[in-house]
Design brief:
Length: 255
């Protein structure tokens, strides 16, 4: 029996190129999953709220869920590019029929894609429901946020209407932001707390978080809103409850 006939009789998983592709698939899956999830989450910085921790975990989970697909594409690409060259209009004699005509491959692709999509949808709905429940949390601190070209202003409605240009929050206190705009569309984004919501003129949108780490964090506009959009940044000061009460009183409000 010739070498070509022997190769044709072998099951696909016993062939040299298939074995190479499977090994590369495993390697690329691990490398892509680890590197992509690590780089993304490190660039985002340390979490300053449960919202941000949930976002980081979601990114890691979704990245690892997608890494086998990316790893398979990379493995097949490398195997093809480094494989034996064939020239001509017809496929090489040892080639199988086109993979797109394989019912097994098509069925596997449909099932795996469906499962991945269902996982993403269900996981996302759980997080959305959790965020919705946060908006209805009792004993929350309510703060009105107004965006305008090119600044933010904050009204602490539960603290006697105290106002500020920078945002001050007590640590471990649930906060609900009521966000609007006086001119064009802006986007209220506290980076390290993982919350972002549009500020629409004439409408009030809401988002909520519980800062869990004392420190100074970044507040930015995430919607292109005009010439000085890049300068529409403020600081978020997360302080202890005692320091927050003292600050509110210094602004003419009540603790």
């Amino acid at each position: 029996m010739s070498e070509l006939e022997t190769a044709k009789r072998l099951a696909w998983w016993k062939r040299a190129d298939a074995k190479k592709a499977v090994v590369l698939w495993a390697i690329f899956t691990l490398v892509i999953g680890y590197v992509a999830s690590t780089i993304q989450t490190r660039v985002m910085g340390s979490a300053a709220s449960e919202n941000m921790s949930s976002t980081i975990n979601m990114i890691k989970i979704f990245t690892w869920a997608a890494s086998p697909v990316a790893g398979l594409v990379a493995a097949l690409t490398i195997t093809t590019l480094l494989g034996k060259r064939h020239f001509g209009d017809n496929p090489p004699p040892e080639a199988e029929h086109e993979i797109r005509n394989s019912p097994k491959v098509a069925a596997t692709w449909v099932v795996v894609s469906t499962l991945l999509c269902l996982f993403a949808v269900i996981y996302g709905m759980v997080l959305v429901q959790k965020d919705e429940n946060n908006l209805r949390s009792a004993n929350s601190l309510n703060i009105d946020v107004t965006g305008q070209q090119w600044a933010w202003s904050f009204n602490y409605v539960d603290n006697g209407g105290a106002q500020s240009a920078d945002l001050y929050l007590p640590v471990d206190k649930h906060v609900v932001f009521h966000v609007t705009s006086t001119d064009v569309m802006h986007s209220f984004w506290i980076v390290q707390m993982g919350i972002k919501v549009d500020a629409n003129p004439g409408y009030i949108t809401e988002t909520a978080t519980t800062p869990n780490k004392i420190g100074v964090y970044d507040l930015r506009c995430a919607e292109l809103c005009g010439l000085y959009h890049a300068y529409m940044q403020k600081q978020v000061h997360v302080v202890s409850q005692a320091d927050y009460d003292a600050w509110v009183q210094s602004q003419g409000g009540k603790a």
